[in-house]
Amino acid sequence: MSTIIRNNKAYDSGDAEATINGFSLDIVEISYETEQEHQLNHTLKNKATSWSRGKITPTATMTVMMHDIAPIERAAGGDLLSIKPFDINMTYINEYNVPVNDTIVAKFQNQGREVTGDMGLNKQYTLFVLDIKFNNPI
After folding, report:
1. I need a labelling partner for 67 at 20 to 30 A (CA). Which of 2, 5, 93, 115 fits?
2. What is the pTM of this model?
């Protein structure tokens, strides 16, 4: 027997709040993930006889408006690349107050500007990620 679910709201970007070392930041877009190596193990036979897991590699990118990144650049003496690793907490809370909190430990891997004809200048930054903790307690 299945349960009927009505009027449940999915998580969406309006439910997300980003903080860097505890300070709230308006992020245009953030993408983060972990990937683990997998391999098949072979003996003298043609087909694999087992499999193994390898290294886990975290990656992330973050798009930030220029008016939000400029104060961080000023605080770092103009050099985002010199900032030590920091925590990015992404918290999602739906209308039923069910939280999901992810913590990314990272530092900036690139710095620059992206100027287009669109209003509102923003830049996608590649992050050097040390760790990602998914759905950890707040």
Report:
1. 93
2. 0.83
CA-based angle 107:70:33, to the nearest 5? 30
Q: Specify the length of the chain in residues.
A: 138
Q: What is the DSSP track for the chain?
A: -PPP--SPPPP-GGGEEEEETTEEE-EEEEEEEEEEEEEEEE-SSSSEEEEEEEEEEEEEEEEEEHHHHHHHHHHTTT-GGGSPPEEEEEEEE-TT--EEEEEEEEEE--------SSSS-EEEEEEEEEEEE-S---
Burial of residue 120 (number of CB atoms within 10 Å: 0-12, 13-18, 19+): exposed
pLDDT of residue 9: 67
Q: Which residue has the tokens 């709230």?
A: 24
**Token duo for residue 58:** 């975290």
Both tokens of 131, joined, read: 């760790």
The predicted structure's pLDDT at residue 40: 94
Q: Which amino acid is at 76?
A: A
